Amino acid sequence: MRPAPPALRGVAAVLEAARAEGVASALSACVLAGGRTVHASFHGQVEEGGAARDLRPDDLFDVASLTKVLATTGVAALLVARGQMELDAPAAAYLPGFEREGKGAVTVRQLLAHSSGLPAWRPYFELAARHQFARAAFLPPGQRPPPEALAAAFLQGRLAVAQAACQEPLEAPPGTRALYSDVGFIALGVVLEAAGRASLADQAEEGLFRPLGLSRTFFLDGLFPAASRARAAGHTFVPTGESKARRELCRGAVQDDNAWAMGGVAGHAGLFSTAAEVAAVGQAWLDALEGRPSPLPAAAARALARRDPTPGSDRALGWDTPGGPAPALGDRLGRGPRGAIGHLGYTGCSLWLDRDEGLVCALLSNHTHPSGQARREEIRRLRRSFHEAVGAALAAP
User: Fold this and answer.
1) pLDDT > 80? residue 2
2) Alpha-carbon Rg for the chain in angstroms
3) Cα 126–Cα 124–Cα 61 angle in degrees, nearest 5
4) What are the backbone dihedrals phi and psi of residue 153, each rounded to the nearest 5 degrees, phi first?
5) What is the pLDDT of residue 365?
6) Residues 6+ apart with CB under 8 A from 381
7) Whose CA is closest to 6, among 35, 31, 43, 34?
8) Residue range 180-232, pLDDT digits in tens
């Protein structure tokens, strides 16, 4: 029998209370200190084989916008280090057509920093849902063709969403405002694929996840249904809530409808993982930033982790930093001279790295289950309480 993973009592109590209060029906957390696991706990239940069982360490969560740092920002670091992409080059240099609607001056750096001037969000999936061929992926489950017959629909959906992002006009001049933008990361994902001459999923797998030995961190690409089915086999997925556009409860399929329209692989969402493997990617970033061996190149990682100078921005490149009167990281962590970087995910996930303390805090949940909608103040309080409890436990004598 395997020994029980280490657990910080106060941290486990916070998460168990959140489960009991209905913040999420499933929560998984992993905290690393100095590269060593100091906390791992799993709360709630998941259905398997028609019966409910306790959550396990290997159950998979839709990590939503953590995709932006776990995959997209990591791939950007690799391409910069290899000389295949420059941060200050126009994105249109890699993705012809992106220059439309006044976007010719938008740089890769500005897409990463959410300072491109693009809008926060657009329902591009509606284009796919109306498309002659792509709409098959948005039929109700009982009418939808099997996955093997949907590859063409996802290809058309992917083209429709990518084209819409390329044609999206700016709301502000590049570099003049900071506004968190899924649209910008949809476009960035396509830029990285053009610069790297491979899909985002393949680049992340070959450059990051495989070198780290991760077997439970992956996209499920609807363009390759047989490979995705094989990848998902043997795994249990935590449900993440309803998609009204698809008229289904999402489980083992990305909840974000724009990512779904693209076949499940997008720069802003689509990744599935576990708390331990999310933490492992976070540790790889910490190692790179400290010059220790890592699949991530040190110089590129440091460039991306540096705070962006855009007026009003609390962001680095791809990453967020603590900001505002009640940051998700709380008051105990990330207060040293080098600070912290992190990111949040809509489904109720987060990843934060305290650079001074050498801490990695990964929290996964299905907060959006069953409605599909986030209750922002509720999940903000949980994240803050989680990080406060981690800081208190590690500071205790």
Assistant:
1) no
2) 20
3) 100
4) -65, -45
5) 98
6) none
7) 31
8) 999 999 999 999 999 999 999 999 999 999 999 999 999 999 999 999 999 99
Tokens, residue 233: 């086999």
Q: Alpha-carbon distance 322 to 330, whole Å?
A: 9
d(C-alpha 146, C-alpha 151), whole Å: 10
For residues 213 and 215, give the distance between their C-alpha atoms in angstroms, rounded to a whole number.
6
CA distances from 273 to 54, 365, 382 (A): 18, 11, 20
d(CA 76, CA 305): 12
* Averaged pLDDT, 304-324: 93
Q: 147: which DSSP letter?
A: G
Rounded CA separation 288/73 (Å): 14
Instruction: State both tokens at 9.
Output: 């009592």
Global confidence as pTM: 0.97
Q: Tell me, what's the pLDDT at 326? A: 55
**Phi then psi dihedrals of residue 182, to 5 deg:** -65, -35
- Look up residue 92 and give its two tokens: 């249109």
d(CA 124, CA 187): 12
Interatomic CA distance for residues 330 and 163, integer angstroms: 40
CB atoms within 10 A of CB 155: 16
Which amino acid, 280?
Answer: A
Residue (of 76, 85, 81, 88) closest to 299 by Cα position: 81
- Does position 391 have pLDDT exceeding 80, yes or no? yes
What confidence tens digit (pLDDT) does each residue in 65-98 have?
999 999 999 999 999 999 999 999 999 999 999 9
Is the bond preceding residue 370 a cis peptide, omega within 30 degrees? yes
**How far is Cα 94 from Cα 83, in angstroms, rounded to an integer?**
13
